């Protein structure tokens, strides 16, 4: 009896047979077993749905990620699936968002763009709810989606080659794809900030290549993107400690290329803003690597013409270094003097503003090492024909800490600047500068009247000597002119030799 029943069962089809042949045999099995196996229609329905799921899986999941991941229709909402399927739905939606559209034409692929944006918003809400578990497939899918959407080649820059990238007068240029990019940045930031994120697992995907491509985006001309990048990179620096040396080295390379090669980059201000907080967290004593960053990267940033874009952030970084180690003051001030502008008055004003902040943090011992070089330069600024430069140099004396440094070292500093003050009193064209000069001279007289009188006598002696030299030079030229006129009046070749000899003797005596 058992053998008869088994003989009536259909034989097992090989795996290579199609599903259509299986469905054709299912009818025979149904007639054989009656009500026990009456599921032909249900089986065909399930088979067709599985085929749809397979097609979705092949599109949404890359081959490297589909192993062990159940495909879920990415158009479903997280509310419509069970908790066990939410993780797979999260990955499905991430891979669906890897499709990049041309956003320059708002009428092109409008529906698909709206679907993608809504999917991105669903992903952000899901991550912010704290329900996601960042397993390796989820991390890989998220990094792949961020890389596909964010890492791109910027269009050629048509701004003037002399502008050095974005300048204060340039209108900002906004990316037409920002409606999508902003959500991608939000998702990336939430991923990095996620409390239960396994850093050891994530660093395999947020690797050096990922960070380098992220740093390249700082050259974006969209200020909104640079602002998002600033936050993302700062969080990566704080979360992935293993990447910190690489980030510092990569940012140094960007600065080197900007200073010594291109002088074109849009994100120097944002990079310096990040490093302002990074420098404040350096441990003491400072590593040699950090000092090299100051000497080789930050100080040369005073050279480019476009310093006005990032000068505020640069000054903050410099001040943070000095706050960590007072002995760096000499290197900083010598660097300022090395790159001190000669013809750019606006840049000179920025230098003096930075100089004031540096001097406010300078100790007496460090000040004495550089005061001679410094006040020789400031003496030139005091007599500048540009009234704003001269005025700013005079206003340094109103700073109490700087004035105290000057007072303690007045024997050296006053002789360096007093002649400039006298020159201003006699020759400067601007009334505001004249008033400031008179105030400083009065203040110096109250500080040390004997020293001021000594400086005044020295200047008078120098003026007297210079007048004597000028008078001797005048007399010499008169004698030379007289001798030359005698030579012209003499006729005959033999008579020419005597006056020439006397003229040469006169010249030698005068010299």
From TrEMBL:
Extent of Basic and acidic residues compositional bias: 14-23
An example GO CC term for this entry is: protein phosphatase type 2A complex
Coiled-coil stretches noted in the UniProt entry, renumbered to this chain: none
Q: Where in the cell is it found?
A: Cytoplasm
Q: Region Disordered: what ranges?
A: 1-28
**What does the entry give for GO biological process?**
signal transduction
> Is Signal tagged as a keyword?
no
Protein task: The B regulatory subunit might modulate substrate selectivity and catalytic activity, and also might direct the localization of the catalytic enzyme to a particular subcellular compartment.
Q: Which GO terms describe its molecular function?
A: protein phosphatase regulator activity
Q: Keyword Protein transport, does the record have it?
A: no
Main subcellular location of this protein, as a coarse class: cytoplasm
Which keywords annotate this record? Answer: Cytoplasm
This protein's name: Serine/threonine protein phosphatase 2A regulatory subunit
- Similarity comment: family membership: Belongs to the phosphatase 2A regulatory subunit B56 family.
């Amino acid at each position: 009896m058992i053998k008869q029943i088994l003989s009536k069962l259909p034989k097992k089809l090989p795996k290579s047979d199609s599903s259509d042949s299986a469905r054709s045999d299912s009818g025979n099995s149904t007639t054989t077993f009656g009500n026990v196996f009456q599921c032909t229609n249900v089986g065909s329905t399930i088979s067709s749905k599985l085929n749809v799921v397979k097609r979705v899986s092949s599109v949404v999941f890359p081959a490297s990620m589909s192993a062990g991941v159940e495909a879920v229709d990415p158009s479903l909402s997280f509310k419509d699936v069970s908790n066990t399927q939410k993780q797979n739905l999260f990955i499905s939606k991430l891979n669906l968002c890897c499709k990049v559209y041309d956003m320059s034409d708002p009428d092109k692929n409008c529906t698909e763009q709206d679907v993608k944006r809504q999917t991105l918003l669903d992903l952000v809400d899901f991550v912010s709810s704290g329900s996601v578990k960042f397993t390796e497939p989820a991390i890989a899918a998220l990094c792949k989606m961020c890389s596909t959407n964010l890492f791109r080649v910027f269009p050629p820059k048509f701004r003037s080659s002399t502008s050095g990238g974005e300048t204060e007068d340039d209108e900002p240029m906004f990316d037409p794809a920002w409606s999508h990019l902003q959500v991608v940045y939000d998702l990336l930031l939430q991923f990095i900030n996620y409390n239960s994120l396994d850093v050891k697992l994530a660093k395999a995907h947020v690797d050096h290549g990922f960070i380098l491509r992220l740093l390249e985006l700082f050259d974006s001309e969209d200020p909104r993107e640079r602002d998002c990048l600033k936050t993302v990179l700062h969080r990566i620096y704080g979360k992935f400690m293993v990447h910190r040396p690489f980030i510092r080295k990569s940012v140094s390379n960007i600065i080197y290329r900007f200073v010594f090669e291109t002088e074109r980059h849009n994100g120097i201000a944002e990079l310096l803003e990040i490093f302002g907080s990074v420098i404040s967290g350096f441990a003491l004593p400072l590593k040699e690597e950090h000092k090299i960053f100051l000497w080789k990267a930050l100080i040369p940033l005073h050279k480019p013409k476009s310093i006005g874009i990032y000068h505020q952030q640069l000054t903050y970084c410099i001040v943070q270094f000095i706050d960590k180690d007072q002995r760096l003051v000499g290197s900083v001030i010598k660097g300022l003097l090395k790159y001190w502008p000669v013809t750019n008055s606006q840049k000179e004003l920025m230098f003096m503003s930075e100089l004031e902040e540096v001097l406010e943090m300078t100790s007496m011992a460090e000040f004495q090492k550089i005061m001679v070089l410094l006040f020789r330069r400031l003496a030139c600024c005091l007599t500048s024909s540009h009234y704003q430069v001269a005025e700013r140099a005079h206003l340094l004396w109103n700073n109490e800490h700087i004035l105290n440094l000057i007072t303690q070292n007045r024997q050296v500093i006053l002789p360096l600047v007093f002649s400039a003050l006298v020159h201003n009193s006699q020759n400067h064209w601007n009334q505001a500068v004249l008033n400031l000069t008179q105030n400083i001279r009065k203040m110096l007289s109250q500080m040390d009247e004997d020293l001021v009188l000594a400086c005044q006598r020295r200047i008078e002696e120098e003026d007297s000597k210079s007048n004597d030299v000028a008078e001797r030079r005048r007399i010499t030229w008169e004698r030379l002119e007289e001798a030359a006129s005698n030579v012209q009046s003499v006729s005959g070749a033999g008579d020419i030799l005597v006056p020439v000899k006397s003229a040469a003797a006169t010249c030698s005596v005068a010299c």
